[in-house]
Fold this protein.
Amino acid sequence: MKPLHTVVALLLILFTSSYLQATTAGSAFCASKCKVRCSKASVQDRCLRYCGLCCDQCRCVPSGTYGHKDECPCYRDKYTGSGKRRRPKCP
């Protein structure tokens, strides 16, 4: 029974690492676009994180450092929170 657990654990590690390589390979586009988008942000790491999440889902990032969200409707329409706390998710 113990060898079975070892094999399952190794397979899980193998599949997880190949999945992570596939997702990070496609994010070079997002990384470069988000770097420009967040270049003037006061909190760089947070801006880059949320921009990257939005870019991965929408496959686009508006040009410039602020505004222009009409260029990417998916990016524009993402919100977090609800009611009075509803605010744009993407920087």
Remarks:
- The longest helix spans residues 2-25.
- The chain is about 60% helix and 5% strand.
- Confidence is low (pLDDT under 50) at residues 18-25.
- The CA atoms of residues 79 and 85 lie 10 Å apart.
